[in-house]
TrEMBL record:
SUPFAM superfamilies: Methylated DNA-protein cysteine methyltransferase domain, Methylated DNA-protein cysteine methyltransferase, C-terminal domain. This is Methylated-DNA--[protein]-cysteine S-methyltransferase. The keyword Transferase applies. One of its GO terms (molecular function) is methylated-DNA-[protein]-cysteine S-methyltransferase activity. The keyword GTP-binding does not apply.
Length: 173
């Protein structure tokens, strides 16, 4: 019952090569993209915006250079937008550390990490391209090295051609 109720929160649950991704929509906009645990069942898109998201995310999974053009609802603080804009400027196949991004925008690494964790639109705003100075770092507020979230980060970085963490690629998904 609980999983069914959670399943109803999404306009689609996509089963992508990177893992499960929930799509929430309202009023013709994408309101949130959520990484989901592997036990979630796929759910076909329930509206045109969810269908558009499904199509574009599938295209990205085929071609890491695919440019997203999705109607995203404005969410987050001005500071988060500053961080997210900086993240969007990181080229595919490259990574920046929390510290490098913080220096670029005149902030602190912890604040950048918190803004990354608060990203409403992962993949589209590629926070997976931000790592710690000593390794992969966390992802989506998780630092469990064997968890599905860091498995998704590893997949995304490898998909985009970042060889720095290829040795950490796992088969968790």
């Amino acid at each position: 019952m609980k999983i069914q109720q959670q399943h109803e929160l999404f306009s689609a649950v996509l089963d992508l090569p990177l893992g499960k991704l929930g799509v929430r929509t309202a009023g013709g906009l994408i309101t949130e993209l959520c990484y989901l645990p592997p036990h979630f069942d796929a759910k076909a898109p329930q509206d045109a915006v969810a269908e558009l998201a499904a199509t574009q995310l599938a295209r990205y999974c085929e071609d890491a250079d695919f440019p997203f053009d999705l109607p995203l609802k404005r969410a987050g603080t001005e500071f988060q937008h500053k961080v997210w804009d900086a993240i969007r400027s990181i080229p595919r196949g490259s990574v920046r550390t929390y510290g490098e991004l913080a220096k670029h925008i005149g902030s602190a690494p912890r604040a950048v990490g918190q803004a990354c964790g608060a990203n409403w639109f992962p993949v589209v705003i590629p926070c997976h391209r931000v790592t710690s100075s000593s390794g992969l770092g966390g992802f989506a507020n998780s630092d469990d090295p064997n968890g599905y979230l860091l498995g998704i980060k590893r997949w995304l970085l490898a998909h985009e051609g970042s060889s720095e963490y290829a040795w950490q690629q796992t088969t968790l998904l």
